[in-house]
Automatic annotation (TrEMBL):
Coarse class of the protein's main subcellular location: membrane
Pfam family, one: MS_channel_1st
Location of the Mechanosensitive ion channel MscS C-terminal domain: 188-272
Organism of origin: Paenibacillus chartarius
Transmembrane segments: 20-40, 72-94, 100-119
Residues of the Mechanosensitive ion channel transmembrane helices 2/3 domain: 75-116
Full protein name: Mechanosensitive ion channel family protein
PANTHER family: MODERATE CONDUCTANCE MECHANOSENSITIVE CHANNEL YBIO
Amino acid sequence: MPVWNWYEWTANLFSGERLAHYTWVVVLVVLIYVISRIVIKIADRTLQHIIAARDKSPLKFDVRRTNTMTKLVHNLVSYTVNFITILLILAQFGVNLGPLLAGAGVLGLAIGFGAQSLVKDIITGFFIIFEDQFAVGDTVQIDQFKGTVEEIGIRVTRIKSWTGEVHIIPNGNIKQVTNFSVHNSIAVIDISIAYEADLNKANEVLKETLAKYFEKSTKLVKMPDLLGVQTLGPSEVKLRITAECLPTLQGEVQRELHAEIKRTFDEHGIEIPYPKTVTYLKAERAVEHGA
């Protein structure tokens, strides 16, 4: 390229008019990005106000379903606004959006045929939310994974186990779900006493302990039931107690009741059986035989 052509091309590229155009494009891109963030923030705030208004209304809504729909609407708004933002930014750089959108439609159709698992995940996720199979905050078991639902997305579901692991499961792979958060739970407590213990006294002490625990506990739905003798074991009499409690709290209720009953039994001298070994010594007598 001749030197004068190079100088002419550089002068045209960095002319005042060109620089003004570039500056205006940069300003528009930044403005479009800022507006998109503001729109997402406004949508989130509006959604929070709607939820707050629903909470104050006399007609109460399911908190589980509300949390799930909140996350889903947030994701949909974010995806939509980000997609429009990308298109507007491309338009500022002179990209013709007509052929691009047409190509995107054809590409989407091809992906729909090729990525059937993706379509299956999306459809399954829609029915999970529509049928309210489980919601954010529920304790569920999906296949061998058990934990608390953190997010129900368009394609995947995230559950966090009680030990901290986060399991990401494609919605299309969810075949069977056990939901532990829909109905109240039943805590089953088996208490063993020794055969030497007074059964009637043990029953009275247990009833008093259960009544005191019910008065101070906020986890129980109703007074626990002492069902009576469950089994007669080799060295113990086993009594069974059932307590209806709030969903997923049966483990905590079992541990607390075991501790309360142990303290009460110690105060009243009721023995809880433990392994014992009894040794019998047989005296042997020597017999002399004469000739």
